[in-house]
Amino acid sequence: MDQETINQAEWRNPDNWSGPKWLSVYFSKRDSRVWVPEQIPALGWTVNLGRPGGVAWLFAVIVGLPLLVLGACLLAISFR
């Protein structure tokens, strides 16, 4: 079985998804992709938390985005 076939089988497996379809989390160590399509295509893509790269992306968004906003606010205050 090639990796693309494994990825598709893992993505279709409901045991690899948690939460409601509109806010689902994907976790598969056998799926080689870091980014996978959401179950509802209109919602775009999500990270595969079964891969280290997926965890890194999630961490970067959760920690990095607030830090970016805080930095922008501090920069705006300093130029007053």
Describe this structure in words.
- By secondary structure, the protein is α+β, with helices and mostly antiparallel strands.
- The mean pLDDT is 92.
- The strands form two sheets. It has a two-stranded antiparallel ribbon with strand order 1-2. A two-stranded antiparallel ribbon has the order 3-4.
- The protein is elongated.
- It is built from two helices and four strands, in the order H-E-E-E-E-H.
Descriptive key words:
elongated, 2 helices, two-stranded antiparallel sheet, two-stranded antiparallel ribbon, single chain, 46% helix, 80 residues, alpha+beta
List the helices and strands and how they pair.
Layout: H1 3-12, E1 17-18, E2 25-26, E3 35-37, E4 45-47, H2 52-78
Antiparallel strand pairs: 1-2, 3-4
How would you summarize what this structure contains?
The chain is of the alpha+beta class and 80 residues long. 46% of the residues lie in helices and 12% in strands.
